[in-house]
Amino acid sequence: VLASAGAVERTYALDRRHVFHSWSAQATVDPMVVTRAEGSWLWDGDGTKLLDFTSQLVFTNLGHQHPRIVRAIQRQAAKLCTIAPAHANDARSEAARLIAAHTPADLDRVFFTNGGADANEHAIRMARLHTGRHKVLSTYRSYHGGTQLAVNVTGDPRRWASDHATAGTVHFFGPFLYRSPFSATTEQEECERALAHLEQVVAFEGPETIAAVVLESIPGTAGIMVPPPGYLRGVRDLCDRHGIVYIADEVMAGFGRAGRWFAVEHGDVAPDLLTFAKGVNCGYVPLGGVAISDAIYETFAQRPYPGGLTYSGHPLACAAAVATIQVMEDEGVVDHADRLGREVFGPALAELARKHAWIGEVRGVGVFWALELVADRVTREPLAPYGGGSAAMTAIMTAAKDEGLLPFVNFNRIHLVPPLNISADEALVGIGMLDRALSRAARSV
Ligand code: PLP
Q1: How confident is the model at residue 166 (pLDDT cuts 50, 70, 90)?
Q2: Which of 153, 215, 278 most suits a substitution to test ligand 1, by most atoms within 8 Å of the C-beta?
Q3: Whose CB has fewer CB within 10 Å in the chain, the N or C terminal residue?
């Protein structure tokens, strides 16, 4: 049952009167009222049904209102809504066990946080105390969270307003062949040159001053650039040579999104710390965390770890994580995501690129895809500038919604990131909507 027009109006009016929105000029905010959501679909205030190709902020990995997750939260609420982090609790213990069962190598201890930003903050704190060093290296094309240190580690323009000279953060360029910062023309060249560049940054910053390299295993919001073969291995080796902690940020790419439990598996390496959030429990209740290697665990075996959160390992969030991971195991969701990437998204988006001159590049893996849109395929001029928008991108967004599709748009890119358990048929329905939206937008601009 959808909400009445009056209820929708009231929701909207109260939002505009009292809710302060993220990353926005408040007077320009125009939120869509959502009255219902189920699986890969949601309904707006007018009752229009939309296919959710965003998984919201790429977190409803098993779709909206998954009955097993909803039931797990309800049962946990009836049993024990909350308990302080110092106590042991069955939901928390079981969530930690299940997460550790899937993280690479010896990353078997889990520190729970409320989301991705604080997971990265704590991972960096652990790395700094473990190494006795301060600096943190990360890529320009990255997002690591909105809190003070996490936003400084972030490379994308959301960092600019909060840049803080004493944060100890240094940025470098990761591999991105389509817009190679190294003038490379092959994946192998891009990989070699990106690693040589990072080696130089480390040398010039002083290896003995660097606590950690923080790296999204596949950069997400920055553009879904799957690293070339050998890159993550090269980063791992570089960190080993210099005693630097390798932090893999798997907040967006982890928990099956890239067709593996963790995207770092594509590079066949294990980090020292791995941060997660979002897909760990579909975001039904806020949860994030850091998975910790034995060596870093040992640093804090006898010496107290100076950090904590009131809601670390919140039972409702952990019960949702247990149910999410069990559904992923029982229903083969990671293999399904991998197959969707190879058999549906890959071929269908390649076909889309043949039809639409705006599509400069298609890239991705699993259920994690980006269309890089360009005004000109030869010059590769982006359809919107870095950090900005354009009339063409707005036209595409509007046309997509008219077709019944909710797309994830960032600068000159469209990301296709629906729930991992979307069916092949529904995925093709969404790609068909995008196909028609691109044609309509191209005619209108
Ligand atoms: N790291 C990555 C890769 C992310 O994509 C995000 C959020 O989009 C974060 C960290 C921050 O997570 P949160 O918004 O839960 O703090």
Answers
A1: confident
A2: 278
A3: N
- In the reported structure, the alpha carbon of residue 218 is separated from the centroid of ligand 1 by a whole-number distance in angstroms of 13
> Is the per-residue pLDDT at 122 higher than 90?
yes
CA 310, CA 304: separation in Å to the nearest integer? 17
All CATH 3.90.1150.10 domain ranges in the chain, comma separated: 32-65+332-444
Q: Which of the four CATH numbers 1.10.340.30, 3.40.50.1780, 3.40.640.10, 3.40.50.1240 does domain 67-330 have?
A: 3.40.640.10
Which residues lie with the beta carbon below 6 Å from any ligand 1 atom?
Answer: 57, 115-117, 120, 143-145, 216, 220-221, 249, 251-252, 277, 288
What confidence score (pLDDT) does residue 21 get? 98
Which residue's C-alpha comes closest to atom 1 of ligand 1? 144
